[in-house]
């Protein structure tokens, strides 16, 4: 998606979250709003005179890498759900790094793939794993769902580190872009990295020096397109995954 398209879409999902969770009907007053130092923030929002400065960033890459990420997320999620439909749960699924399947063929691709994988996967006992067709699939009793990553080994990959690096790099810039008085200054982090959870993001934020970022009042995190969580609130003086 071109940069502006994903920003508009993320903004609208955030407005929907505020409406759904807090019954607040925020309105958009402007975009690319200038602040000190020649910078700007993405959107100015208003709620009966309350002003919010909203700045966005995403953990994933731009351009072709973003398109590849969306493809992987869609297909990995379809595989997880297909196994659930078949009554197979508690799977940790390590997939190939990329799927090159046209959108119109993905449903058929997933069904036929699961047809081939099912006999080996269904026979797994707790703690066992099987490697087949580029997938490494482990059974973990009590997982309660099916979970995908692009990495073999489950534990080699560090989702907290994946979140911490862009936070360290980008939050100082976002702090400068939110250098404006009289506003609630909010950062929305869009992930969809699929394996960076809200708890991972909270843990990563615990390593951030927010005393050096005085212009950031709250940080929200969107780990998936259906969910937004408040992960930092300066008024609570902490990173938290427990706030609504």
CATH topology of the largest domain: Trna Endonuclease, Chain: A, domain 1
**Overall pLDDT, averaged?**
87
Shape: elongated
C-alpha-based Rg, rounded? 20 Å
Main β-sheet, in a few words?
Answer: 7 strands, mixed
What is the topology, as strand order, of the major beta sheet?
A: 1-2-3-8-9-10-11
Helix/strand structural class: alpha/beta
Number of domains: 2
Helix content: 25-40%
Report strand %: 25-35%
| The CATH C-level class name of the largest domain | Alpha Beta
Oligomer: single chain
End-to-end C-alpha gap: 29 Å
In CATH, the architecture of the largest domain is 3-Layer(aba) Sandwich
Order of helices and strands: HEEEHEHEEEHEHEEE
Number of helices: 5
Number of strands: 11
Uncertain ranges: 152-156
Describe the structure.
With 244 residues, the protein is an alpha/beta fold. Helix 4 crosses helix 5. It has two domains: 140 residues, Trna Endonuclease, Chain: A, domain 1; 87 residues, no CATH class. The strands form two sheets. The protein has a seven-stranded mixed beta sheet with strand order 1-2-3-8-9-10-11, with helices on both faces. A four-stranded mixed beta sheet has the order 5-6-4-7, covered by helices on one side. Strand 2 and strand 3 form a beta hairpin. It is built from five helices and eleven strands, in the order H-E-E-E-H-E-H-E-E-E-H-E-H-E-E-E.
């Amino acid at each position: 998606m071109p940069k502006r398209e994903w920003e508009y879409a993320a903004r609208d999902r955030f407005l929907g979250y505020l409406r759904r969770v807090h019954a607040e009907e925020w309105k958009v007053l402007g975009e690319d709003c200038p602040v000190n130092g020649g910078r700007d923030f993405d959107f100015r929002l208003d709620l009966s005179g309350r002003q919010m400065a909203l700045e966005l960033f995403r953990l994933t890459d731009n351009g072709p890498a973003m398109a590849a990420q969306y493809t992987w997320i869609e297909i990995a999620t379809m595989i997880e759900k297909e196994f659930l439909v078949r009554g197979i749960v508690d799977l940790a699924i390590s997939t190939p790094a990329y799927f090159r399947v046209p959108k119109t063929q993905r449903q058929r691709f997933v069904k036929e793939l699961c047809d081939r994988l099912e006999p080996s996967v269904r026979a797994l006992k707790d703690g066992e794993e099987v490697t087949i067709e580029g997938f490494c699939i482990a059974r973990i009793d009590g997982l309660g769902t099916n979970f995908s990553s692009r990495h073999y080994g489950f534990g080699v990959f560090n989702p907290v580190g994946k979140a911490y690096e862009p936070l360290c790099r980008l939050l100082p810039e976002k702090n400068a872009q939110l250098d404006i008085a009289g506003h609630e200054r909010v950062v929305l982090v869009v992930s969809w990295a699929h394996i960076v959870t809200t708890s991972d993001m909270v843990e990563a934020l615990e390593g951030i020096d927010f005393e050096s970022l005085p212009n950031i009042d709250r940080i929200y995190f969107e780990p998936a397109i259906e969910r937004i969580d408040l992960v930092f609130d300066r008024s609570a003086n902490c990173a938290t995954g427990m706030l609504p």
